Amino acid sequence: MYDLKIKGGRIVDGTGNPWYHGDVAVTKDRISAVGLCEGEAQETIEASGLVVSPGFVDAHSHGDLVLISEPEAQIKIMQGITTEVVGQDGLGEAPLTDGTVDMWRRYLSGLNGNPEIGWEWRSLGEYLAQLEVARPSVNVASLVGHGNLRLTTMGMDNRKPTSVELAEMGQLLDKSLNEGGIGLSTGLIYPPCVYADASELTELCKVVAAHRGVFVVHMRNEGDKLLDSIDEVVSVGRCSGAAVHISHFKTNGRANWGKAPQALARVEEARVSGVDVTFDQYPYTAGSTFLGSLLPPWAHEGGIDSLLKRLHDKETRKKLTLYMGGARGDEESPNEWDRILITNLRTSRNKRFEGKYVSQIAAELGKTPAETVLDLVLEEENSATMATFTMDEGDVRTIMRSPLGMVCTDGIVLGKPHPRAYGSFPRVAGRYVREGVLRLEDAIRKMTSYPAQTHGLVDRGLLRPGMAADITIFDPEKIEDTATFENPIQHPRGIEYVIVNGVVTVEHCRYNGSRAGTILRFKENN
Question: What average pLDDT score do residues 269-275 get?
Fold first, then answer.
């Protein structure tokens, strides 16, 4: 007697192999049989005409706090995601100290939000325990933030660590990995991570390699110096022995459109030479991050209060305006202000500007675009976020076809967010499969077994007896994203059922309130 049987579906098992008709049986939280399952079941789902696949794995999530404040996780579960990887871009929620927690909470409010929850945790283990108490609808695995290691050891200083400080960071990383972290993340455009050089990263990644974890990196440059940035992270992987995973792989800026084949060639060459390099991608031509990331790294040195003080200083503002506006001001700006969309503003005075481009806001206020950005960063205390339309659709498709890439949302869910938070996975399984960019089986592999493999989640991502019963069932003809930049808070169509650890959580396209996710600690998975 099975607990659940899924009958007569088109099974896409996560390997990339061609689909076949069959059944999937579940007992408790495990898949117990696949193929012809003749036994009876407590509950049966008729899946004729539907695709039965492993639950989707979001390789790059910013649900760190939302999973505690809104554990229903409908943004993800409704698009078939059953596992999220948090702690991205070097900006995790742990480890912290009593002296850093308040500043860090303010600093991350533009990325992960600032919900009304206690921040009682300090270690990664305590943070994971807090997630466990919240009982989210999805499974969660966490990286260890490089920024947290630096913050805890040396604050927001723009300098190299001493040998003692570097050793302390390594020890804290080792402790956090022992507490369940699956690897190390860094964001080499975000302070304090941006202040690190390759030698610092290499030493830390030696610790990652000893744990058989993964090094997840937002590279230093995704535009004019893209190839150099790939070389840097490959060198870290080669010298440390750690597996390297590149976040949201792209070619940024008009001058770099068409460079996707060159960038992919660098990754492929690295693998041929013995370096384990992989990457993820969201299926859009716009990115999204802090508005404050348009400012130079030196502006952020010392933390938020130092940044705000600089933005009040007239002489410093002149330097920043010149930096953002180009050599002659806004008429030769390196930024395309009519392609930078403001997505989140928390103050009542500025809320009206959500969903507008910087050029529109500047015209309304009678200011230059650079001055407008500086004022918004100041007034919002660096919590403002943006979407930047800087990529070419041809490059997106070229990168998507690579077998070395997987799917992610990189979803920041604040304000009027980038639609990737709500639509990335159905957009790939729907639009890009139907348009012939990917085979359905390859798309599913990129969403399931491949991210599970690279992130050490060894019992997820495949429809096999003994594997965790995370399962997504969808209509291949109807699956599609509905979220847009104009109206991003919309769930997709075509996801009929989602099962997490054997518990039906979405049925007939509706969330039923179940919260059966678990916290995936690395040691427990290996």
Answer: 98
Cα 243 off chain centre by? 18
Strand partners, 254: none
372 and 275 within one domain:
no
- By the 8 A CB rule, do 206 and 200 touch? no
Cα R_g (the chain), whole angstroms: 22
pLDDT > 60? residue 502: yes
Residue 441: other Cβ atoms inside 10 A: 19
380 in any annotated domain: yes
For residues 261 and 396, is the Cβ–Cβ distance under 8 A? no
Task: Establish if 344 belongs to a structural domain.
Answer: yes
Same domain membership, residue 198 and residue 86? yes
Q: How far is residue 378's CA from residue 381's CA, in Å, rounded to a whole number?
A: 5
CA 11 to chain CA centroid, Å, is 27
Sign of CA pseudo-dihedral 45, 441, 286, 182:
positive
User: What pTM value is reported for the model?
Assistant: 0.96
CA distances from 246 to 16, 186, 264, 404, 432 (A): 22, 10, 12, 10, 22
For 371, the domain range is: 290-389
- The closest of 185, 151, 172 to 300, measured between CA atoms, is 151
Q: Is 244 in the same domain as 214?
A: yes
**What are the tens digits of pLDDT across the range 453-477?**
999 999 999 999 999 999 999 999 9
Q: How far apart are the first and last CA of the chain?
A: 30
Beta bridge partners of 246: 217, 279
Q: What does the longest C-alpha to C-alpha distance in the chain come to?
A: 77
* Residue 395 belongs to a domain: no
CB atoms within 10 A of CB 464: 15
Number of separate domains in the chain: 2
In three-state secondary structure terms, 342 is strand
